[in-house]
Design goal:
Belongs to the peptidase M14 family. It is found in: Secreted. It comes from Asbolus verrucosus. Involved in the digestion of the blood meal. This is Carboxypeptidase B-like. The N and C termini lie far apart (46 Å). Helix content is 33%, strand content 19%. It contains 13 helices and 14 strands. Strand 3 and strand 4 form a beta hairpin. Helix 10 runs antiparallel to helix 13. The protein is α/β, with parallel strands linked by helices. The protein is globular. 48% of the residues are buried. The protein binds arginine and zinc ion (ZN). Arginine binds next to helix 12. The site of zinc ion has 4 residues, from loops.
């Protein structure tokens, strides 16, 4: 066993704090129970007063992060309004510190540093893609499809057996910086496809896979070094940096569920594709019109959902029955490999309206037959701070999902 150098040279050192790493000591994750619509307004007000932030939830429950100094105030406000709650994480910083093994023993492999026992930095993920292209030149190639605001290359791996009749499937991860399980899962899928290609079903082998595991490299790195909960890219330095890349795609841009205020988490940018990270996706897909595009999948977390268009509003496309039926096959494939239950449905109806998402653009403009946003684990026990031990189980269920998508793409 070779001992790997630390994943992050600055990890856990005083240097981190000197660089201004945000600590979440004393912040608590609460699961609240919503049984009246008006209760959501109570939470929205607490958010606007900067006491909580909303992590996720559904019609009957909402996960909220409570600031240390606001615990008493929030407790009082919830009680007064009949909102029951349960403390799920007592100290978020402690959960963050325990999430990722800082140094791990790598098996005796050479050429790359990737594992699925820890969340890795962007350099490790890039190095892994380059390694695959060098090691399996007949099957894989790497391309840089664009550069982030801070000039990091956005890399894409193509996996293809070269058959001329192949349909094309797009997979991305890491649109949102803090959803670390997404790049980990996408690279897990890559690893399985490439290293066991011959044992994959014919439907997988006869697809041209275009896979970009980290679409938001600046945000991803920032979530490792400065702020574990960073979501956006790092566009526009200054008072309130960052655009929500999943509000920046050019279909019904700027509508419901996206914000014009740069200081919010869902700021949609100055215009459709104003950000280089989303423009890279658009340019690559539209520049490869020779590919027979059939399916588009974005991996996010958390909540365990299989979502399809539309996300911009509570309406569905004419062929929604096809998306629903493949969505259900995805959820049942996940169950049959021992995974948890995933909720299937149109994004706005099932979660909330949010305009400018990649899935809506894929369906509405690029005309992919199948477009999905898959929200991976968990259900709010750890939320974004999912311990690394869950990478492999989550990867296995996502692999089952993607195999279903390969079949649907082949038949489309
Ligand atoms: N949690 C995702 C987000 O907020 C959901 C996106 C679903 N798709 C959509 N077009 N709204 O970005
Ligand atoms: Zn997301």
């Amino acid at each position: 066993v070779a001992r790997a150098p630390p994943l992050d040279p600055a990890e856990g050192t005083a240097e981190d704090e000197a660089q201004g790493r945000i600590l979440y000591t004393g912040s608590q994750l609460w699961k609240t129970v919503i049984d009246k619509k008006a209760q959501i307004q109570v939470l929205a007000q607490l958010r606007d007063e900067h006491d909580i932030s909303m992590w996720g939830g559904n019609a009957t429950s909402m996960d909220v992060l409570v600031k240390p100094d606001s615990v008493d105030k929030v407790k009082e406000r919830l009680t007064k309004n009949g909102i029951r709650y349960e403390v799920v994480i007592e100290d978020l910083q402690k959960a963050i510190d325990e999430e990722n093994p800082s140094e791990i023993e790598l098996d005796d492999r050479q050429g790359h540093r990737m594992t699925w026992q820890a969340y890795h930095r962007y350099a490790d993920i890039q190095g892994y893609l380059d390694y695959l292209a060098t090691t399996y030149p007949d099957l894989c190639s790497v391309q840089t499809i664009g550069y982030s605001i801070q000039n990091k290359p956005i890399k894409l791996l193509k996996i293809s057996n070269g058959n001329p009749g192949n349909k094309a499937v797009w997979i991305d991860g890491g649109i949102h910086a803090r959803e670390w399980i997404s790049p980990a899962t996408v690279t897990f899928i890559i690893n399985q496809f490439v290293s066991n290609f011959e044992s994959e079903p014919a439907s997988v082998q006869n697809i041209d896979w275009y896979i970009a595991p980290v679409l938001n490299p600046d945000g991803y790195e920032y979530s490792h070094t400065r702020d574990r909960l960073w979501r956006k890219n790092l566009g526009r330095s200054g008072q309130c940096p960052g655009t929500d890349l999943n509000r920046n795609f050019g279909y019904r841009w700027g509508g419901r569920g996206s914000s014009k205020n740069p200081c919010t988490e869902t700021y949609g940018g100055t215009g459709p594709f104003s950000e280089p990270e989303t423009a890279a996706v658009k340019n690559f897909i539209q520049g490869n019109s020779g590919a027979n595009w059939k399916a588009y999948v974005s991996f996010h977390s958390y909540g365990q959902y299989v979502l399809y268009p539309w996300g911009y509003d509570r309406v569905v496309p004419p062929d929604y029955k096809d998306l629903e039926s493949v969505g259900r096959k995805i959820a049942s494939a996940i169950r049959s490999v021992g995974g948890p239950s995933y909720t299937v449905g149109p994004a706005a109806n099932t979660l909330y309206p949010a305009s400018g998402g990649s899935d809506d653009w894929a369906k509405g403009v690029a005309k992919f037959k199948y477009a999905y946003t898959i929200e991976l684990r968990d259900n709010g026990r750890y939320g974004f701070v999912l311990p690394a031990a869950y990478i492999q189980p989550t990867g296995k269920e996502a692999l089952a999902a993607v195999r279903v998508i390969a079949e649907a793409a082949a038949a489309a």
